[in-house]
Amino acid sequence: VSILVAVPVLLLLLAFLIGNLLREMKSLSTADTDNLQWTILQVETEVANLNVALSDALAEDSFDEDGLRLRADIALSRLSIIESGAARDLIAGGDPALLARVDRYQADLIDILDADPNLSRTDVGQMRDLTRAVRPDMRQLVLIGLEAGTERAKARRDQFSTQLARTGFVAIAVILGLTV
Q1: How far is CA 41 from the centre of its chain?
Q2: What is the mean pLDDT of residues 47-56?
Q3: Of the candidates 99, 102, 94, the residue with the CA atom closest to the CA atom of residue 131
Q4: Taking every pair of C-alpha atoms in the chain, what is the biggest distance, in angstroms?
Q5: Among 111, 141, 178, which residue's Cα sits nearest to residue 40?
Q6: pLDDT of res. 127
Q7: What is the CA radius of gyration of the chain?
Q8: Cα(72)–Cα(93) distance, rounded to whole angstroms?
Q9: Distance CA 85, CA 44 (A)
């Protein structure tokens, strides 16, 4: 009689574990951590592109103000993506002072862009100096994001591996229960 009770219970447990296993497999295939890491990498890339555009503008006799504003807007939009949400959560365990410096850079850049409808050479120089100064922080931000993302992905793989082992154990128990 105990086998008659144990086998259906084990079958229900096996079905539950298989359901969890399928959910974990789907979760691993969504690659949300990869997307977050890509987003964080894009921030560094766009800030580097802004730095190049600002340096080029200062090297020329005249500069394309609309182009500089567009490049700054792109960099700021990338920064705003990591300002909140999953990307911020991913890097929040990092250096709070680093995040504060990046936030300050963003605020200072916005202040310069919004101060006057026309950018002066002085404005462009200030923007370049701010951007150059924040580049090491952007690199550090990327490294923190990559490390945190890698740790999160490893934890998810470990969780999947554990779930797979549990499911296998219950499957073996069901098979043994059916053979008795």
Answers
A1: 8
A2: 96
A3: 102
A4: 93
A5: 141
A6: 97
A7: 26
A8: 27
A9: 18
